[in-house]
Amino acid sequence: MTPRSRLRVPTGPQTPRPDGGPTPAPAPAGAPRPDLALVRRARRMHRILTERHPDAHCELDHSSPLELLVATILSAQCTDKMVNQVTPALFARYPSAEHYAAAEREELEELIRPTGFFRAKTSSLIALGAALTERHDGQVPRRLAQLVKPPGVGRKTANVVLGNAFGVPGITVDTHFGRLSRRFGWTASEDPVVIEQEVGALFPRRDWTMLSHRVIFHGRRVCHARRPACGACPLRGPGLCPSSGIGESDPVRAQALVKGPSPGGSSPTGSSTTGPAGAAE
């Protein structure tokens, strides 16, 4: 008889991948394995979120790795909706890294002013263009270690680009992902690197990018920072979300809090009876 397969839980230090893909920050040597019950609960929650948000995706409009990288930098402290209003003219004016490197500061500032912090972002985009031009022939690198070096590019931004432009799995720890990971009991940390490490250990690597999209969708539409719509949440059943009930529990009032188009109300088993939607809050 073939032995029953065992649930594999990644743990301990991880060696760099040959494709340069991101991995969560290595756990300290001898770090304890994630609790098996937590792994099973987390994966069940993810399956339910997959049913609730079947259209989860990166909400920043882009047609190339460079466009996604620029849009993600602009999304800091700004909504994706606003970024998407700004980027068509921006991308037309600056189609390459060389164009950003040679940009006139005043003109670039004016184009991205609506996204906020436009002076700092302008500095980052000009420096980014110069770095890509000088070190990578104007191309966005596919390796995390190289991608996080230019100004304005951290692990979150790098994981967004690698996961969505190059298909390299990564966890994007933005405001929503961090908040929900703590509410879900997947981590207790406020540190994005620790969150990436601890949550990454609960799921197969192949799921990391879509996990990020689904959790972020849920945070934007249902599990709000100030008043989560617990009564309309598919994770409200027993044994799922430990924070269930911290927000509006009445199903009717909770449904009124849900943002965006919705498939109906949802059941704790994950079958949808309400509906669905990436970065700054």
Brief write-up:
This protein is an all-alpha fold. It contains twelve helices and two strands, in the order H-H-H-H-H-H-H-H-H-H-H-H-E-E. Helix content is 45%, strand content 1%.
Protein described:
This protein folds into two domains: 65-165, Orthogonal Bundle (Endonuclease III, domain 1); 170-281, Endonuclease Iii, domain 2 (Orthogonal Bundle). The chain has helices at residues 36-52, 65-74, 80-93, 97-101, 105-112, 118-136, 144-147, 155-165, 175-183, 192-200, 208-221, 251-257, and strands spanning 265-266, 272-273. The termini are far apart. It contains twelve helices and two strands. Helix 2 (65-74) packs antiparallel against helix 8 and helix 9 (175-183) packs across helix 11. A two-stranded antiparallel ribbon has the order 1-2.
Keywords:
two-stranded antiparallel ribbon; disordered C terminus; Endonuclease Iii, domain 2; Endonuclease III, domain 1; 281 residues; mainly alpha; 1% strand
Describe the main β-sheet briefly.
2 strands, antiparallel
Please identify the structural class as seen in this structure: mainly alpha
Low-confidence stretches: 1-19, 263-281
Put simply, the count of helices is 12
Per the CATH scheme, the topology name of the largest domain is Endonuclease Iii, domain 2
On the 0 to 100 scale, the average pLDDT is: 85
Quickly count the domains. Answer: 2
Strand order of the largest sheet: 1-2
* Shape estimate: globular
- Give the radius of gyration: 20 Å
